[in-house]
Specification:
The protein is α+β, with helices and mostly antiparallel strands. Strands 2-1-6 form a 3-stranded mixed β-sheet. Strands 3-7 form a two-stranded antiparallel ribbon. The longest helix has 17 residues. β1 and β2 form a beta hairpin. The chain contains 4 helices and 7 strands, in the order αββαβββαββα. It has one domain. Helix content is 25%, strand content 20%.
């Protein structure tokens, strides 16, 4: 015995442990609505299907991003002409704000945010979602 059967069992075991594991950190992405309010995912959705990847580009300006070489990494400072959401995303925490780009004076925002939940990560990149049924009250259907 061995070979392909062992690899398949290992893959299923790794998937099961990944799908059931509690994240060590809570990643949050809030959407800034046109009225100025922040919209977050409902808590039950976050507990059931946490955000596991956030990819942030600090936009054309690059302000807020790190640059340099190993041992000399520095963050590009965010100039005053940028708005509070750009400053917030340049801070060192696990919560980011996503919103439409703006060139409005005093509220310039050019960050680009992409985030992925655990189920979508497994469905698209692991080729097998964590769940295969509708999760009632979540508003999402996983296949």
């Amino acid at each position: 015995m061995g070979g392909a059967a062992e690899k398949e069992n290992l893959a299923l075991s790794n998937k099961a442990s990944f799908c059931r594991a509690r994240p060590m950190f809570s990643l949050r992405v809030s959407e800034r609505r046109s009225g100025g309010t922040l919209s977050d995912r409902p808590q039950h959705a976050i507990r059931h299907d946490p955000t596991v990847v956030v990819l942030m580009s600090h936009g054309e300006s690059g302000h807020g991003a790190y640059h340099g070489s190993v041992g000399h990494v520095q963050r590009l400072k965010v100039p005053q002409r940028y708005g509070p959401d750009k400053f917030y995303n340049a801070a060192n925490h696990l919560h980011v704000i996503s919103r439409g780009h703006s060139k409005k004076k005093g509220d310039v925002f050019d960050d680009m945010i992409v985030w992925v939940t655990r189920h979508n990560l497994m469905a698209f990149y692991g080729r097998s979602p964590c769940v295969r049924e509708e999760v009632h009250g979540d508003g999402h259907v996983f296949i």
